[in-house]
Write a structure and sequence with these properties.
With 331 residues, the chain is α/β, with parallel strands linked by helices. 29% of the residues lie in helices and 29% in strands. It is globular and about 70 Å long. It comes from Canavalia gladiata (Sword bean).
Length: 331
């Protein structure tokens, strides 16, 4: 760690003249990293972060409880006596990816845990259940096929959405051409940190860390909340490992699309951040896992109300309860 600190100090001094970062900031980063390595925790929003900060299991560092950099507030402390750095990313793929990259670039991080709430695409599960997928996909990277195109130079391995399958008939029951045609789901390009620069690898299903996923077997007995005031769920929520989750810069609140994603990809949680964190960790060769509590059946509730307005707080607390138990099991 002393060598790492010296290198950081030299790097900080060399680029300070360009105004990229101050020497004072580098000194703070060096001091923080001297006490590492840390487990990184990435959380999307304040209402998901607050239950963690209010938990007695989280203890801020007595000398440097936080470090502000590039619009991010990195909280340093211990969770279940494990050294952690917690960062709130903000909504969406861009914020999640940038926050994770900064976390891994600035700090000595040995693995990343991501948690929050999600929409549910799996009718076998209910609101309040906490899901831990083995694989994540970015379902917002598309090739939009031109109308009447027979073939194209795009990837066809992962399936398509044909908009005409969801047409309503006209009042005369006449079929009309859907000008939106089809979208084809595409893999991501990543450039592994231990690979050849500018040589990309394509990936659609991003795996979580095998060791982390095995640890998640031991989370079945975590106590989870069942009620919000006097509104209670039909049964007690459970923690369940599932095969697949999906992320995109889309808030899915549509029954038809939710059912399509579930039938096409066997997806359970749908969110807007997890795969961005997963892709950065994969590129940087860092262990990763995501814990997502289901806050609503995406597009399955009343047209007048969304379940997430009622159950977001319950789902957030359940996700934190599982996160705390998970990190207590890390060696």
């Amino acid at each position: 760690m002393e060598l790492l600190g010296l290198l950081l100090l030299l790097l900080g001094s060399s680029i300070m003249a360009n105004g990229a970062i101050s020497e004072l900031s580098w000194r703070k980063i060096i001091n923080i990293n001297r006490e590492g390595p840390y487990v990184g925790i990435v959380v999307p929003n304040a209402f998901e972060l607050n239950p963690l900060l209010h938990s007695p299991a989280f203890v801020p560092h007595h000398k440097f409880p936080y470090f502000d950099f590039s619009g991010k507030h990195f909280r340093i402390g211990e969770l279940e006596k494990k050294k952690v750095i917690v960062v709130m990313s903000g909504l969406g793929m861009l914020n999640a990816g940038v926050s994770t990259q900064l976390l891994l670039t600035l700090f000595d991080v040995k693995g990343v845990l991501h948690y929050g709430i999600a929409g549910n695409a799996n009718p076998k599960l209910q609101i309040g259940d906490v899901t831990i997928p083995q694989y994540w996909a970015h379902t917002g990277l598309w090739h939009w096929q031109r109308l009447r195109e027979v073939d194209g130079d795009f990837n066809k391995s992962f399936g398509y959405l044909k908009f005409a399958n969801y047409n309503n008939y006209t009042k005369h029951s006449d079929l009309v051409t859907n000008l939106l045609n089809m979208i084809w789901y595409q893999p991501e390009e990543i450039f592994p940190v231990n690979g050849i620069p500018e040589v990309s690898h394509d990936i659609f299903w991003v795996p979580v860390d095998k060791t982390y996923f095995n640890i998640a077997r031991n989370l079945k007995n975590v106590k989870l909340d069942n009620c919000v005031n006097t509104t209670c769920l039909p049964r007690k929520p459970i923690v369940v490992r599932v095969e697949k989750g999906a992320s995109a810069n889309v808030f899915v609140d549509n029954k038809a699309y939710r059912e399509f994603v579930n039938s096409k990809f066997d997806v359970t949680p749908i969110d807007m951040e997890s795969v961005a964190v997963a892709l950065v960790c994969l590129q940087q060769n860092k262990p990763f896992i995501a814990i997502r509590a289901l806050s609503d059946l995406a597009g399955g509730g009343s047209v007048l109300a969304n379940e997430v307005a009622v159950f977001a707080s319950l789902a957030s607390q359940n996700a934190v309860n599982v996160l705390i138990k998970f990190i207590s099991l890390l060696i």
